[in-house]
Specification:
alpha+beta, four-stranded antiparallel beta sheet, two-stranded antiparallel ribbon, 6 strands, 13% strand, globular
């Protein structure tokens, strides 16, 4: 989900103490630069991520997201991780003011859950993803299209969404869950 040259890759031979971050760096080809701090903070804090994106104005997700999943993928383990992260989010927002669109939220997903912001723009994108998946299942052609108006709206909001994710990453790092 990244333009060429904007992913951060580990240097050749670099060792990492976190097997989840190492797996993503090795298998997924890197972590988007503007979500890397959050991904590393979550993984280091014992909340394993299975995917992420920094968000884009012209394609894909309109806001940053991280997918969280328990290593064994059991419902009990996933629910425990979700409760842990929900508690951290409550602490983060206890004294922080932000818009509903920028506020990070948790949302159930297949085999884990999502941490994201972006409000209505994010939900419109998820609906488009679901529709594309349905079209693929039915053998229909899928075309990705983000209108000029949607691009402008995304561009106006994306930096604010990324900054909120970055502030949460710093909070998680300081909190050391």
């Amino acid at each position: 989900m990244q333009k060429r040259g904007t992913k951060r890759k580990a240097p050749p031979g670099r060792k990492t103490s976190n097997r989840y971050t190492k797996r993503m760096t090795d298998e997924w080809g890197g972590i988007d630069e503007k979500i890397e701090g959050l991904v590393r903070a979550l993984n280091t804090g014992g909340i394993p991520t299975t995917g992420s994106c920094e968000g884009h104005a012209d394609r894909g997700a309109p806001a940053p997201w991280a997918k969280i999943g328990a290593p064994e993928n059991t419902p009990a383990d996933t629910e425990a991780l979700k409760e842990k992260l929900a508690g951290i989010l409550r602490a983060f927002y206890a004294t922080r003011k932000t818009t509903d669109e920028a506020r990070l939220v948790l949302e159930d997903g297949h085999a884990g859950f999502w941490l994201h912001n972006g409000g209505e723009a994010y939900h419109r994108w998820r609906e488009q993803v679901e529709q594309a998946a349905e079209n693929i299942r039915k053998g229909r052609k899928v075309t990705a299209y983000v209108s000029q108006g949607e691009r402008l709206e995304r561009a106006q909001n994306l930096l604010r969404y990324q900054e909120e994710a970055g502030s949460f990453a710093q909070f998680v790092s300081r909190t050391k869950p």
